Amino acid sequence: IRTAREIIDLSPLEIQKLLDTTLWEAKQLLRCVSEVTAPQISSLVSIASKSSQQPTFYPTGIRTLDSALRGGLRAGHINEIVGRAGAGKTQCCLTAALSVASKG
After folding, report:
1. pTM for the full model?
2. pLDDT digits (tens, 9 = 90+) for 6-39
3. Which phi and psi angles does 57 have, rounded to 5°?
């Protein structure tokens, strides 16, 4: 095991056998690695209340989407694009990436 990802991809039973430990210890290890590597989950309300400065937004290059997002993708946050197959998720992400990259 060289990375946290390799641990997360294993089941508690696999970790138990691999490390010759108890199942409880394997579950604890998995929980600890998950907590350390997973992004912190925040609600929109908690983000807004913690933010005392003006947030930075990256325009996506798609006017209607930027308008709906009130300026674009918020810096420092994870944004999830979802939709049915063929809806344009990949094209949306590529357009946003090009827009952000062109701004330097």
Report:
1. 0.43
2. 888 999 999 999 999 999 999 999 988 888 887 7
3. -120, 145
